[in-house]
């Protein structure tokens, strides 16, 4: 596997997967990084992570994806997970409306703990359960629009859009990072500490060798 | 092959892969083998299984779907002897192991088993029978010996009884006949029940007891967790509790498992599952600090990379290693844990961290936080073998006093930190409010000259702030609440608990004293 052993990359991006328990975060991660799906994947206690690299505009981006516990009480210890994250996938289950209703609270989590410029994707997972759909795509798209999120629907079970979702997230992160290269001053002006941290996280890793 | 079970379809991989894809990273296989996921897709009466794909597959090109429960469509009776299940499997398929596992990361190969000679086992059994016969005396006068024998491992035939005596749950059950059944008749919180329902099928899906949806094992597991959530409504259900209850159910019947589970959650792991997860956070700091003494260079490394202990110890501690260690090791560690308390979990954690990050060569390979975390997440099997682990635990250079001292220190730091955070929050809030007020005033000036509006706004301000402060207070854990909850416990042994109740945060090192002081007098 190409992501084992020493590996060179141009950028290292930390992406976090958040959302209610049971929406399929761990399976999105395993589908994207190992192409595996497990109907009985154990609940995540604490944090799990995996990496995969992709190439965007000739640059090798290494995505370090953090999968977090979804149960409400684990939010007490999730602040450590958000540190340095440049992308977030906010996952809900299209067959369970309550998981969509909770998106608001997850967005608040992001606002409280993550960088202001973090790229956020709204991901409606489990599209394979089309006969059980409880959240209409239009509603979710409208919500995403209102909150400036990128919207996508996926199925970790049959792989639909999983690649695309992560690619889109990484592309967008890359775009924002590239933009900031040219407008560093602006960034410094608009926000305080977190952005500086984020910026340095990305830059420090640049041209690193993971040995 | 039954066509109901297996379907093949072709999937165009380019559908969702943009052009700029890295070489060799995307699935190259055009044909995907997939088992139908829908509940009704599988013939429920089928007992013969054609193929099994286990979780450890690392071949990237072959997408796998793992659905063990459906694959092993077995009789719902957990007492069904495993040899009756016909399993003809793929290259990865295995027979059930000694502990009831069909697969998964905790499957034990017969070759990995520690071979204790039968005569030795028999002698140990007799010793345990002797101890259990006169438990009070042993606990009161020869606790050291009991501890030693737990460290050697409790013979499996004696384990159920011993764990109940060591934890004191036997007494709880004896004192409260019918209580468990009464809890089950109550309705319980729907949020908790839904969370439990979401989990029971995925806690040890590779174990024969829990493999079948609607099977007795899953029902028992549901009942234990439900009963506890009713008995301790302020704790409710935490996902980390599932595996703990499940381990107990593999050892003892459901009612016994419930009382043992209750004792573990309330006494051994007090505060671990409370909504604020404070005890876990404090214990993470304690563990990290103890590392300084166990392996200074590991401590320095973790400190320099700012690796938050919560990133690797949460699952270890909250699940008591039940999802990490190989099964024989887990049982042996739990034998010790039942006797000595959470200190054992600290020691296991310290040994594991030291084993993977103990020397300069290992540390050199961990140049980034991620490398370090990966090492801690993927601990080589050799470090988790029971003989190695127990030997290293006994060799550790820290004693109980060190641990207790460190705990006290960290609790103080924790409280101080909380206070500071609260202050900061209040200050930020005030600044925000002032800013808002200024903006509002500016707007009001621009739009209208009605001064009464401005006055109204400013009189309203303190009220809002107060409200917000209240909200913050509600959100943070209030020690007073903890205290009240502790009083409400029915597992409590009065003469020990009075002293403990005065501590506002959970003390993980008290359990030895609990066992020593409590069990001797309580067991009958």
TrEMBL record, chain A:
GO terms for molecular function: GTP binding; GTPase activity. GO terms for biological process: exocytosis. InterPro entries: P-loop_NTPase (IPR027417), Rab_GTPases_membrane_traffic (IPR050209), Small_GTP-bd (IPR005225), Small_GTPase (IPR001806). Keywords: GTP-binding, Lipoprotein, Membrane, Nucleotide-binding, Prenylation. GO terms for cellular component: Golgi apparatus; pseudopodium membrane; recycling endosome. SUPFAM superfamilies: P-loop containing nucleoside triphosphate hydrolases (SSF52540). PROSITE patterns: RAB, RAS, RHO. SMART domains: RAB, RAN, RAS, RHO. It holds the Pfam family Ras. It is found in: Cell projection, Pseudopodium membrane; Endomembrane system. Interacts (GTP-bound form) with RAB11FIP1, RAB11FIP2, RAB11FIP3 and RAB11FIP4. Interacts (via the hypervariable C-terminal region) with ITGB1 (via the cytoplasmic region); the interaction is GTP-dependent. Interacts with ITGAV. Associates with the integrin alpha-V/beta-1 heterodimer. Interacts with VPS33B. Belongs to the small GTPase superfamily. Rab family. The small GTPases Rab are key regulators of intracellular membrane trafficking, from the formation of transport vesicles to their fusion with membranes. Rabs cycle between an inactive GDP-bound form and an active GTP-bound form that is able to recruit to membranes different set of downstream effectors directly responsible for vesicle formation, movement, tethering and fusion. RAB25 regulates epithelial cell differentiation, proliferation and survival, thereby playing key roles in tumorigenesis. PANTHER family: DRAB11-RELATED (PTHR47979). This is Ras-related protein Rab-25. The gene is 20194689.
TrEMBL record, chain B:
Keywords: GTPase activation. One of its GO terms (cellular component) is cytosol. InterPro entries: Rab-GAP-TBC_dom (IPR000195), Rab-GAP_TBC_sf (IPR035969), Rab_GAP_TBC_domain (IPR050302). GO terms for biological process: retrograde transport, endosome to Golgi. Residues 432-446 have a biased composition (Low complexity). Residues 454-472 have a biased composition (Basic and acidic residues). Residues 153-341 form the Rab-GAP TBC domain. Gene3D superfamilies: putative rabgap domain of human tbc1 domain family member 14 like domains, Ypt/Rab-GAP domain of gyp1p, domain 1, Ypt/Rab-GAP domain of gyp1p, domain 3. Residues 482-492 have a biased composition (Basic residues). Coiled coil: none annotated. Signal peptide: none annotated. Residues 17-31 have a biased composition (Polar residues). Residues 1-42, 407-524 are annotated as: Disordered. This is Rab-GAP TBC domain-containing protein.
């Amino acid at each position: 596997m190409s992501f084992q052993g020493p590996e060179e990359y141009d950028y290292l991006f930390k992406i976090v997967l958040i959302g209610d328990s049971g929406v399929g975060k761990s399976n999105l991660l395993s589908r994207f990084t190992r192409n595996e799906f497990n109907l009985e994947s154990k609940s995540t206690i604490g944090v799990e992570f995996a990496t995969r690299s992709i190439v965007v505009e000739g640059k090798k981006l290494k995505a370090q994806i953090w999968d977090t516990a979804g149960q409400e009480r684990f939010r007490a210890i999730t602040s450590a997970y958000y540190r340095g994250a440049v992308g977030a996938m906010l996952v809900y289950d299209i067959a369970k409306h309550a998981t969509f209703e909770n998106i608001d609270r997850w967005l608040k989590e992001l606002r409280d703990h993550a960088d202001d410029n973090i790229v956020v994707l709204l991901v409606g997972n489990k599209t394979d359960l089309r006969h059980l759909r409880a959240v209409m795509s239009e509603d979710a798209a409208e919500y995403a629009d209102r909150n400036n999120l990128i919207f996508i629907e996926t199925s970790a079970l049959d792989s639909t859009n999983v690649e695309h979702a992560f690619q889109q997230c990484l592309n967008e992160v890359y775009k924002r990072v590239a933009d900031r290269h040219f407008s560093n001053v602006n960034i410094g002006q608009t926000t305080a500490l977190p952005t500086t941290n984020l910026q340095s996280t990305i830059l420090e890793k640049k041209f690193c060798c993971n040995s | 092959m039954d066509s109901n079970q297996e379907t093949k379809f072709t999937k165009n991989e380019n559908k969702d892969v943009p052009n700029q894809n890295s070489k060799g990273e995307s699935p190259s296989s055009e044909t995907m083998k997939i088992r139908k996921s829908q509940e009704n897709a599988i013939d429920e009466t089928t007992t013969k299984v054609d193929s099994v794909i286990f979780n450890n597959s690392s071949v990237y090109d072959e997408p796998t779907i793992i659905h063990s429960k459906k694959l092993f469509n077995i009789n719902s009776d957990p007492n069904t002897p495993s040899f009756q299940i016909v399993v003809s499997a793929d290259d990865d398929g295995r027979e059930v192991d000694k502990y009831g596992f069909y697969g998964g990361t905790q499957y034990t190969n017969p070759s990995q088993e520690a071979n204790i000679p039968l005569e030795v086992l028999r002698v140990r059994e007799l010793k345990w029978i002797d101890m259990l016969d006169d438990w009070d005396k042993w606990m009161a006068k020869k606790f050291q010996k009991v501890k030693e024998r737990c460290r050697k491992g409790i013979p499996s035939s004696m384990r159920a009884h011993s764990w109940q005596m060591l934890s004191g749950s036997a007494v709880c059950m004896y004192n409260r006949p019918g209580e468990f059944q009464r809890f089950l008749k109550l309705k319980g919180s729907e949020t908790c029940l839904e969370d439990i329902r979401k989990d029971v099928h995925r806690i040890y899906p590779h174990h024969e007891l829990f493999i079948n949806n609607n099977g007795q094992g899953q029902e028992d597991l549901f009942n234990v967790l439900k009963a506890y959530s009713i008995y301790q409504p302020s704790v409710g259900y935490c996902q980390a509790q599932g595996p703990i209850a499940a381990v107990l159910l593999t050892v003892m019947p459901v009612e016994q498992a419930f009382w043992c589970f209750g004792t573990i959650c309330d006494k051994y792991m007090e505060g671990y599952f409370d909504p604020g997860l404070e005890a876990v956070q404090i214990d993470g700091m304690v563990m990290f600090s103890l590392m300084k003494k166990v392996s200074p260079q590991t401590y320095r490394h973790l400190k320099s990379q700012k690796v938050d202990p919560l990133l690797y110890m949460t699952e270890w501690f909250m699940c008591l290693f039940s999802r990490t260690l190989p099964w024989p090791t887990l049982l042996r560690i739990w034998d010790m844990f039942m006797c000595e308390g959470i200190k054992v979990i600290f020691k296991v954690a310290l040994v594991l961290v030291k084993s993977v990050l103990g020397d300069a060569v290992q540390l050199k390979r961990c140049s980034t936080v991620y490398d370090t975390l990966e090492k801690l997440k993927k601990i080589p099997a050799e470090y988790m073998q029971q003989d190695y682990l127990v030997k290293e635990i006994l060799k550790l250079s820290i004693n109980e006093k060190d641990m207790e001292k460190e705990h006290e220190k960290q609790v103080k730091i924790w409280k101080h930190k909380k206070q500071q955070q609260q202050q900061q929050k209040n200050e930020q809030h005030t600044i925000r409010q002032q800013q808002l007020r200024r903006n509002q005033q500016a707007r009001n000036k621009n739009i209208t000259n009605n001064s009464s509006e401005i006055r109204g706004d400013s009189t309203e301000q303190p009220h809002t702030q107060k409200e917000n402060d209240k909200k913050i207070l509600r959100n943070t854990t209030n020690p007073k609440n903890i205290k009240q909850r502790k009083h409400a416990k029915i597992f409590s042994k009065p003469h020990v608990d009075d002293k403990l109740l005065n501590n506002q945060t959970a003390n993980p090192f008290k359990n030895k004293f609990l066992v020593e002081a409590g069990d001797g007098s309580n067991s009958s």
